[in-house]
Amino acid sequence: MMLERVLPYAKTLLSSVITEGDTAVDATAGNGHDTLFLAQLVGDSGAVYAFDIQQQAVDATIGRLKEHGLEKRAHVILDGHEHLSKYVHGEVAGAIFNLGYLPGGNHDIITKGETTISAIQQLLSKLKIGGIIVLVIYHGHEGGKEEKDAVIEYVSHLPQKYVHVLRYEFINQKNDPPFLIALEKMNRVGGSD
């Protein structure tokens, strides 16, 4: 057995819960790689909602989807993920965040702890039982440690009867390697065990 790296493991987790006809969320569309992956999972009868605050990311994501003929499966939205409840109304099977900045973009435009936590809260209320939210946390940039600390503080205090929280990382890599946090919804708030 070989240990999966962080990004392949994120895909393994998502592909274990997202199937044809599901709704999925890419909370940080970036260059569209995860949006494309989710669009392949949900099939023609499903939908992906992808969010980014940068037009460059929205354009790249739409372009990537068009290259593969999957643009009809995704709604690519120029807005922050903290507003996702304005767009996503049904049950969500899975979601992914890549926290940090847009690769190849302006490194001064980064995700922030308060908006990320707001988006997580909204997604948890929409997530199906057994659904998963994956956060890939890049924290080796200006502002990254603050967001990392805020997100870890928040998810560490989620009730375990409601959400299982996993942290997956390689602890002997240098230069602030990314790590993964996965949230698996086990119950509705106030539900039975």
UniProtKB/TrEMBL annotation:
A GO molecular-function descriptor: methyltransferase activity
Write down the CDD domains for this protein, in alphabetical order.
AdoMet_MTases
Q: Does the keyword Disulfide bond apply?
A: no
Q: Which UniProt keywords apply?
A: Methyltransferase, Transferase
Pfam families per UniProt: rRNA_methylase
Q: Does the keyword Methyltransferase apply?
A: yes
Instruction: Give a GO biological-process term.
Output: methylation
Domain of life of the source: Bacteria
Q: Which InterPro entries match?
A: MnmM_MeTrfase, SAM-dependent_MTases_sf
Taking the record's annotation, the residue ranges forming a coiled coil are none
| Name listed for the protein in its UniProt record | Class I SAM-dependent methyltransferase
